Amino acid sequence: MPTKHEQILEYIDKLEIGSKISVRQIAKALSVSEGTAYRAIKDAENQGSVSTIERVGTIRIEKKRKDNIEKLTFAEVVNVVDGQVLGGRKGLHKTLNKFVIGAMKLEAMMRYVDPDSLLIVGNRTKAHALALKAGAAVLITGGFEADESVTRLADELELPVITTSYDTFTVATMINRAIYDQLIKKEIVLVSDITTPVSVTNYLTTSDSIATWYELNEISGHSRFPVVDQSMRVVGVITSKDIIGIEHRVSIEKVMTKHPLTVQGTTSVANAAHMMIWEGIELLPVIDHQQMLQGIISRQDVLKALQMIQKQPQVGETFDDLITSHIQDIEDENGTTFACEVTPQMTSYLGTLSYGVMTTLVSEAGSRALRKQKKGDLVIENITLYFLKPVQMESKLLIQPKILELSRRYGKVDVEIYHRGEVVGKALMMAQLIDRNL
Q: In the structure, what pLDDT confidence band is assigned to residue 335 with cuts at 50, 70 and 90?
């Protein structure tokens, strides 16, 4: 019989996508304590079936498929940008396909807005309404509020309107980072990707006898099997070593190894491989959070997966990568100078170069200058922007790093940024140098 915890998880899984969930509601519906309900809701959140948003509550969301992991739900976007939902709460469970930065004229902007996209824009009420009518959600930057007519429309269309205090560049960086993090997770091969499911797994129960082990050994060719109780929880494993000299009628429970090594579906294959090689194990049971058997993995499965990992290309591009890709080297009599054009994505809601982008430009230019003088890796320890003027979109910048100090372990770089011959930014960067040969 399933436990109260398992009953709550089943109840949550059956709720309609987008439903609000509360501890008190679950406790009352299933006649359990609020503590039990709270723990189950947190477990469901870890499993990806619910999401908790500050000032909104906990909502039921659709679990992500492995091939859809790089997409975020609007509920996740709210958490990523520390946002507040102004309208359209019923649409928080929906998934966004792309996001659009609204740093252009309205007509041009709307050409990029599609259904299930997210428009990131400042306090442009007309753009908010048009985006919602086009099937897109809206993320308002700079801490601005939405017009009442916009929030009513958002509730009607079930498309979220979110506000955040961050600027456009910072928000885009946060969302890109969240997507990139999920891409990294997607590239990491997990045990769940190679698990032989429980429906075709050979296992024994505590009520079986040693005679059953011999039957499974002949059928499968394996000598190691998980042992489960009546609730399908893994309580032990049994191998050929455990049954040597034991009569066939003896119960499995009496000779099995209790508290066996197991893995969960979220365990990386690399970690599982280490466990199997270190312990000399040919087969591992795969369990869920409740210790229930989900399947098995064999050493052969793990080795094949590791071979495939080595052949896979690495993918993913961060927003910093997009910024630094615009920086070009210019060799001149003063040493190395860098050129960069300010694109719409680099600007704040005021249309000027974002503070965050300026920091990225300084760190990239300073790092390149140091690497030209001293081979090896470096870690930026501190960046101080002590002069900054507004820089408009489409401005062409010249970045001139000047090395002030350079030792075996530390470097200090002064970086000046020019626009049309005028200094628009000054910064000092400190970095720790790491010699690869050490």
A: low
E-state strands within 334-406: 335-341, 377-388, 396-406
Residue with tokens 């906990």: 58
Distance separating alpha carbons of residues 136 and 117, to the nearest angstrom: 5
User: Do 226 and 260 touch, CB atoms closer than 8 A?
Assistant: yes
3-state secondary structure of 136: coil
**Strand pairing category for 161-163 and 196-197:** unpaired
The DSSP bridge pattern shows strands 263-264 and 283-287 to be parallel
Alpha helices in 51-124 (DSSP H): 74-80, 106-110
Superfamily of structural domain 65-187: HprK N-terminal domain-like (3.40.1390.20)
Please list the residue range(s) of the chain that carry CATH number 3.10.580.10.
191-311
Give the tens place of pLDDT for each residue, 137-164.
Answer: 999 999 999 999 999 999 999 999 999 9
Least confident window among 198-202, 204-208, 382-386: 198-202
Q: How far is CA 38 from the centre of its chain?
A: 24
**DSSP class of 375:** -
Residues of the chain with CATH 3.10.129.10: 319-434
Give, in words, the CATH class of 191-311.
alpha beta
Q: Which residue blocks in 247-344 are alpha helix, DSSP H?
A: 252-255, 269-279, 299-311, 319-324
> Which residues of the chain does CATH 1.10.10.10 include?
1-63
Tokens (6 digits) for 129? 């309404």
- Measuring CA to CA, which residue among 85, 115, 81 is closest to residue 98? 115
The CATH architecture of the domain made up of 319-434 is Roll (3.10)
pLDDT confidence tier of residue 314, bands split at 50, 70 and 90 = very low
**Class of residue 314 by CB neighbours under 10 A (exposed 0-12, middle 13-18, buried 19+):** exposed
The domain made up of 1-63 has a fold known as Arc Repressor Mutant, subunit A (1.10.10)
